[in-house]
Amino acid sequence: MRQAHAMTNTSNDTTALILIDMQQGMAAATSPRNNPEAEARIAELLTAWRERGQPVVHVRHLSRTPGSPFWPGQAGAEFQALLAPLPSEHVVDKHVTDAFAHTGLERWLHQRGIRRLVFVGVSTNMSVEATVRSAGCLGFDCQVVADACYCFDRPDLDGRPRNAEDLHRVALANLQGEYGQVCQSTELL
Known about the structure:
The chain has one domain (about 15-189): 3-Layer(aba) Sandwich (Rossmann fold). Helix content is about 30%, strand content about 20%. It is built from 6 helices and 8 strands. The strands form 2 sheets. Strands 3-2-1-4-5-8 form a 6-stranded parallel β-sheet, sandwiched between helices. Strands 6-7 form a two-stranded antiparallel ribbon.
């Protein structure tokens, strides 16, 4: 099992905050979800990263499916105002769940010598999990902030309803230890 290193923010330590899919379409979703305070925790972390002068990456899902709320040019594809990138912050557009797939994110991080990543966003069991798995496999030291991620209720393969909190916890368990470390926002603030 791969062991991720504890994250600290010393003057020689660059840690990027990766915000995944914090778009208006996610905020407008009507499916039941867990962790209603996730956006507030993300905003706190974003403020702290900006104050520390640490790099911030905003990942945006742009769908290739016409009619999707995440279709380019639709309001749903735009960032939530509270979590919108500053002009100096990097934006990655993705078309699949994994933010490393065909985006140049890995190269961007390597060019800046960034090896430590902190992940927040939505959905824990989809884009967050897919992206953290890739990051861990690529050798990055990863932390996933449990109280700054959330997901939606979803049926299992047999059609049985599964609640968002259970899906969230299972996705985090899938990541813990093998791909990174799961933490709470208070540990980073």
